[in-house]
Amino acid sequence: MRRFYRLSATPPVLLIHGGAGPRKKPKEKKLCREAIAAVIAETSVLVKRFPPGDPIVANSLAMPIGAALLLAISLLTGETRVPPVRPAA
Question: What is the pTM of this model?
């Protein structure tokens, strides 16, 4: 189970910690990993409460829930949010 946790939590953590910026303490890194794992797990649990159906409906429910949880975590940690300057290509 621990190996699965590492594999599932590693890509988002690399995205967050991979950029240039102030170095985080090991305790903060662990808290970030735990928060990411909690967001992924909570989204899965909430989506599974609904009966199986159209995958588009499932995604339309999961995306705002995950976004709200990530926004809450971002606000709690005091992370700066920078809007995009130009549209994606």
Answer: 0.38
